[in-house]
Amino acid sequence: MDARARARAVLECIERSDGTTTTTTTGGGGDATAVGSPGRGNKRRRGAAAVELDPEGGDGKDEDGGGKRVKGAGAESGGAADGSSGLSGTRGGIREDELAEKLGGVMSVDERAQAINELLYQRKIAIFKRGDSLVFERVHEEQAAKFKGLSTEDMLIYQIIQHAGNAGMWTKELKQRSNLPVPQITKCFRTLEARKLIKSVKNVAQSNRKVYMLYDLEPSREITGGAWYTEQEFDTEFINILCEQCVNFIYSKDRVTLEEVSEFIISSKLSHIVLSTDDVLQIVNTLVYDGKVDVTEDESHDDGMGAADEDFKPIKYYSKALIPIPEGNAYTNIPCGVCPVINECRPDGLINPTTCEYMTAWLEY
Description:
Layout: H1 3-18, E1 94-95, H2 96-103, H3 109-121, E2 125-130, E3 133-138, H4 141-147, H5 152-164, H6 171-178, H7 182-194, E4 198-203, E5 206-214, H8 221-224, E6 229-230, E7 233-234, H9 236-251, H10 258-268, H11 277-289, E8 293-298, E9 315-320, H12 357-364
Antiparallel strand pairs: 1-3, 2-3, 4-5, 6-7, 8-9
């Protein structure tokens, strides 16, 4: 059996075991892993996107240290520790020991390692860790096409960004992790963005900083600011409308729960995005702090006779405030508290309370 036939046999074995896997990726979610034959030594190779299995079982060498076993760019594939796909779908694949068992009577360990290396180089399979085992998986053509022609540096940047998840990663962190110069990283950004593999997102906390993440991911709340931000701007008008409508709803009822307020917002279509329970709680708490709504706890369903239940949580009800806090009063608006010339004010002075127009307006109020 020649080299091509062995590679084809390995690929067919992986395809049969891959079963219903629908999508995959050649991007790595963690540190790149250089793999040796079963039971042999191996090391991680950083800063490259291609790894060749070592049929001799010797320690792998870094590329800078004369790593001769690296055959080409773009063959390495990694994944998250739990085996989840970097783009979409659920990973299947075949474990390394299962593959060795199925091909044990067909080819030797060295021949199998060479065949896997060739498939990795051609990006026809992906390799990642699931628990303590290495898993091989078929890369579908439409996914492999996205990575075709990418350089070693492009794949390295992609893998680092993928590992960051929806929290994203900015240029300074990428420079530290990849050891690449900023101009090279910028070039990789342009290439990966053009292929819609990654995207840049502005951070609301630091408007002058952009972070990069996989194209198909939704940014985390820490990046976008959550429901209260629109295009990286705090949406005061939207919040005021929600508060006003929630007040009207609570006032129209005797008392309501947080779930009922959430259902009201959904049914009224006040928000074009789905608000979580925590989002609605922030709105209701704002009304409580403003003195417009009272909150009470109902513990009537706990008879208090049994052992203490650490998971017990009383039901909270929201109702119209019995004693609303006024928006302002004479004491909070007294002009003397903010008067810039109060130290010069005296009954017989040029500035005095008798002729002060601000004091007159306050007394009338």
